[in-house]
Amino acid sequence: MVAYTSHNTTCFDKESPAISFVGRHNSGKTTLIEQIVAKLVERGYDIGTIKHHGHKGFDIDIPGKDSYRHMQAGSSDTIIVAPDKMARITHLHQEPSCDQLVATMPNHDLVIVEGFRKSGLETIEVMRKGNTADEECAELFYYGAQHALSPELDITQIRCELVQSERFQNEAPSVQETLLHQALLNAQQQLEKMPQASTVALATNIEQAHKAAELYDIPSFDINDYEGIVEFLIRHYVRPRLSVVIQAGGESKRMKQSKALVEFMGRPLLCHMIERLAPIADRLLITTNEAERLSFVHNLYPQMNIDLLPDIYPMRGALPGIASALSGAKTPLVALVACDMVFVSAHLLAHEAALTHKLHVDAVVPVNKHGFEPFHAVYRRNECLQAVTAALKEGKHRAQELITRVNTYQLTPQEARAIEPYGGYFMNANTPEELAQLEERYRSLYDE
């Protein structure tokens, strides 16, 4: 048996998903986040956090320490490093945006932000009973929900409606109406701290807030329901695990041998593909009908725990191959890649996975003038497997049957180039001559 050598895989940073917990002063945001982070970490997730201070002049360094003396001497940017952690203190001329901060924190399963209400992130609103500002906010929120107003409440409109109402002028106001009236008097400072269109859930122990959330059809949790909030985050925001499936098949008539084993850059093409894709894979699989010949990958990449999957359908065609891949993968998201796409972009596939999760779609498939690219795409496993199975029962074998049966986001060439400007990632080789041309191009771009 031929001995092959593995090359180092390329380092790759994955964009971290993020969500913000927002509320008024003393609403209990920090206490809640502390519990949520601990429970997510217990489940094996890697969590980052950002705290928006909102006021100038905070200091986390210790007077008298060397790093503090560096800053006092005039250093504008100081890093403190120890074997197990590091910190960076930077003097700012302008506060960075939340997006910019999250971009500096890649490779987390989730970044939880405290504050930054206007960041554009989706938010979980925190309201605590006993905190006057939260109770006033809940009353305003409930009033708006009862009157079918937008969550971005028009405070002036509400104040006029309430004060001019016949009941408020001629009868003794209820406790709720009195509280609402007081809230309206304080509305100018509350206005910018109300639930908004970005609010995706509430964490509260205020009855009026729960009622408002129900009317607005927004999920609401008790402020101490840590497990419920964690499950919500895992379902909607924590980065889902991604399987990458390389579709290797077997002998290729046009290539005159197995594409997986054909030589590319002095090694089997399959090795090249594994090393390009490994950085984004939580699980790496290869669909093949020649598992014994490809078993060398287990010795070559022992740390990757690569699975070799047989075809589960006897017939040929794109759709049966997709069915085998989706059946063998056990993660929520699955990236499918053809074995002969030598310029496959891990960066673009990671972006496709992030879009699948963020947009709540079943698939993200690139499209160009040649049509769909189903083998440089990401699929939501359960939904797509169900659609594939139904199509095969109807005798359909083309990949487009899947794409048209599920909620598919079509990734345009412009979007793809914005992520991976060099292009060429959909090029594949069907003959020895085409592979030689791709290798020549590859050598001109990469000095190996």
Distance between the termini: 25 Å
Helix fraction?
25-40%
Q: Which segments are poorly predicted (pLDDT under 50) over 5 or more consecutive residues?
A: 1-6
Q: Strand count, sense and closure of the main sheet?
A: 8 strands, mixed
Explain briefly what this protein structure is.
The protein has 448 residues and is of the alpha/beta class. It is built from 19 helices and 20 strands. α1 (29-42) packs across α10, α4 (132-146) packs across α7 and α5 (155-163) packs across α7 (175-185).
Report what the structure shows.
- The strands form five sheets. Strands 9, 14, 15, 16, 17, 18, 19 and 20 form an eight-stranded mixed beta sheet that branches.
- This protein has a domain at 242-445: Spore Coat Polysaccharide Biosynthesis Protein SpsA, Chain A (Alpha-Beta Complex), CATH 3.90.550.10.
- The protein is 39% helix and 19% strand.
- α4 (132-146) packs across α7.
- The two termini are 25 Å apart.
- By secondary structure, it is of the alpha/beta class.
- The protein contains 19 helices and 20 strands.
